[in-house]
Amino acid sequence: MTDWLERISSPKFVLHDTEISFLKDNNLFCINTETGLIRQVTNFVSGEEKPEPKTKGQDLFLENQQKDLFDVLKERDAKEKAGKYKEELEEEKEPLKIYLGKKRLRNVELSPSGKYVVYSTILNAQGGKQTSVTHFVTESGYTEEKDGRTKVGSPLSETEMGIFDLGTNKPEKIETDNIPGLKDLPEYLKDYPGRLPKDSSEIKDRAINLMGPVWNETQDLAVIVALSQDNKDRWILLLDPATGKFETLDRQHDEAWIGGPGIGGWGMSTGDLGWMPDGKSVWFQSEVSGYSHLYAVNIETKKKTALTSGEFEVSDAFISKDKKYFYFTANKVHPGVSHFIKCRFGAANPCKLLHWKVEMK
After folding, report:
1. Could you tell me if residue 292 is inside a domain?
2. Least crowded by CB within 10 Å, which of 41, 91, 172, 339?
3. Mind listing the pLDDT tens digit for each residue in 320-354?
4. Which domain CATH number covers 223?
5. Distance from C-alpha of 74 to C-alpha of 64, rounded to nearest angstrom
6. How far is the C-alpha of 294 from the C-alpha of 154, rounded, in Å?
């Protein structure tokens, strides 16, 4: 379908399998599977926007005076404006340029209807000093120093997420103000009263990373995962791209560390989650019981249902393509023995798993 020297990535069927989206040169494109027509959906540009030079001061006064004194300059200016206006009406509208500055594009996803694009960017950590690791076994025969990772407490990379409305050709801001607990302080501060803020106005929102989106197959609704950079909270959120607002589906909090099988970690992963076959619930994993298990939450009622439970861990979960079975790995028999499990969804209750069957060791 394409024959380019440039590299393309992340191909996937979109718009009910009528087109294939892909990334090329840091932008999202779509190719029609019948006509072969390729269209550019986004227009991300590296660097900062360069402002147009403007006349000011004495030069601006002189320029305006010349137009007042000479009718021919007035007519010329009017013709230029009319010509530009005509060109704007006749030319095909191109996607708005979105300047990335020092950030890098991390992810771009088209909504099921094709009306919205949700994108995320990443800004590499600034000012962190890397550690040095001595390598003793080298080709040169001499010890060599090589850079390692930065130390705990160093500045972290930052991610941002935005919405591009293809109808208005404008980027929209995602509002994070209604995410609960952003101002919560860690419990260890109770042991150090002198380090507690004197006034609540001094408490700032904790830094978070937004991961996703995971789109509903039929509706312009997306699941977004927010991870606090202090690794103490994980929020599973429902994003409406039309408003840019979140609804909280689940919040997981751990004073030690949020992580575990299917949960992700290090602030850069959604973990294992997705939409249930009914399209009205979202499945995910949580360690709220002390073990990593599968849960489902209804996006309307916010009711949570435990899909698995017990003194064992679940990992590598996914739903079959025909949406009839849940597959995952679990150490249900013994902590040191993992089995591949196949579960069938209940007909009356699509959130209930039936007939656990061990497929293989």
Report:
1. yes
2. 91
3. 999 989 999 999 888 898 888 888 876 555 455 55
4. 2.140.10.30
5. 10
6. 34
